[in-house]
């Protein structure tokens, strides 16, 4: 049932191109128009939405953090992302014009369920993004957009995360379509690029040999840091979470711009630091800033593991290890940038002799608050 793989996690990492393609299937027609039939919230209501609030936990929360960039950029609707476990305890401001998006692979996470119940009590409309048909969270929501990742067995979430991202992009694009947007051309281009994104994920998977080798060489380390900016920041958080849960290593993700506000004090000789580099196209200012960050930490002895787009030559002199990912539109980069981090964590866990599919102290779905 592991399809020839040693672990479910490896199988599920490998299934990502298909999971991504399946989640897009039938939702964008040949002319680039989105039809999300399952989202039964009337277009009239979606046109009136004045705030989007995303609630989720763990990896699903990281998908939400990335969704915020897409939703705000394409729709200009303010979007908050909150840990579901914190949400209802701060008396959040919600009304009929709030769209709450609850993201959950299992559909049974109690923290997320309690958050959405609270939102509905306040009159907000709740849309679930979920991977499990008929589970509690979609049943209690006004509408559901299913991710089609197929069953995810390994405790650490991989393919569900990529499909949550796809679902979030679809929601953002759909809101933009319903409401009209000044980014119409960009959106058409993104919809076009989504069609080839599954192939891009496949290409990343084909080049993971050196990442595995690198991971094995780091098995004796205690700490790994992850840096990113813009949508690369949640990717850094996700890379760190994967490493904690699988390799039981101290791992932290930072926004690279925060380095100088404290974390740079952690840099010491031979400390592995993974840097997710934004595209040099698009927001090129950010790209240049992160290149100087890489220079700074390397000058202080860090061992830099750089994840950068094909053709990005500016990073080459400062990368102790360079991992190439295909060029994508800026907002879609997490779909390809996360994959090497999953492989990295899985391989490190194996090298350290850990149980990959069943990390200690963790359960696949957390049904207590
Ligand atoms: C991390 C992981 C957890 C889940 C979190 C939410 O690899 O699996 O952080 O993402 O417990 O679970 P769901 O998505 O089922 O609500």
Automatic annotation (TrEMBL):
Active site: 364
UniProt KW keywords: Aminotransferase, Cytoplasm, Glutamine amidotransferase, Repeat, Transferase
Catalytic activity, EC: 2.6.1.16
EC category name: transferase
Catalysed conversion reaction: D-fructose 6-phosphate + L-glutamine = D-glucosamine 6-phosphate + L-glutamate
Domain of life according to the entry: Bacteria
Domain SIS, residue spans: 41-181, 214-359
Coiled coil: none
Cellular compartments annotated: Cytoplasm
Subunit structure: Homodimer.
Chain's role: Catalyzes the first step in hexosamine metabolism, converting fructose-6P into glucosamine-6P using glutamine as a nitrogen source.
Protein name (record): Glutamine--fructose-6-phosphate aminotransferase [isomerizing]
Portion of the parent chain present: 247 to 615 of 615
